[in-house]
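Amino Acid Chain and Its Fold in Token Form
===========================================
Purpose: to set a sequence beside its fold so the mapping can be learned.
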Amino acid sequence: MQQVIYNLVENAVKFVNEGGKISFAFEKNSDRICSFAIRNSGEGLKNEEIQRVFDRFYKTDESRGKDKTGLGLGLSISRKIVHLHHGHIVVKSVYGEYTEFSVQIPFDASKEK
């Protein structure tokens, strides 16, 4: 999960608008679900981009100018890791305002200290 958080934070930092904000939310609820969300202000994603953002090697047209080092694999890898932990990852975005990635992972309450 460290890799997932790293990938999501790295993307949030890369694509936040100048003077913008990055926010984090963490929650552990009574249904034995841990969740966290990472949101950045900025360009956001268009609807057609949201459909493809987890595809391997996919980079939005706008990101190509900002992301000189990425290969378009981070979100695909993150989704795979989350699914291997029996969790869910979703993206929400309003174009021109924000993008938010939310992750939900079940936890085993019997292992809590």
Remarks:
- The chain has one domain: 2-111.
- The two ends are 20 Å apart (CA to CA).
- The first strand starts at residue 22 and ends at 29.
